[in-house]
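Okay, can you check this protein?
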Amino acid sequence: MPDHRWTRVGRHSYNTKQHSARGVRTPGGTLKAQRIYKKSTGVKCSDCKVVLPGIKHIRSSKYHATKKRERTVSRAYGGSCCASCVKGRIMRAFLLEEQKAVKKVLAERAGK
């Protein structure tokens, strides 16, 4: 009958959030400790603070090892803003320019 006990790896003996482990059976039938790493909450939008879809949830220290297509979305403000916030920014900029043009036309009409 195989043994169901396993010992923790390393010097840290407490099962905290940072140093959690679980027993995993190897092909040889022995139980070994496998380190469980904390999951990230994911990258959030800089405006509305919603989690950005399409970007991997990785700890910030591991981002340099991933591919660029896994870190960003192919759009303006791809890795930092969600699509609705970018749409709002574009609309706001367009409407401001339109408002300036209308003011200019009204000033020309008043000047005549």
Remarks:
- The mean pLDDT is 91.
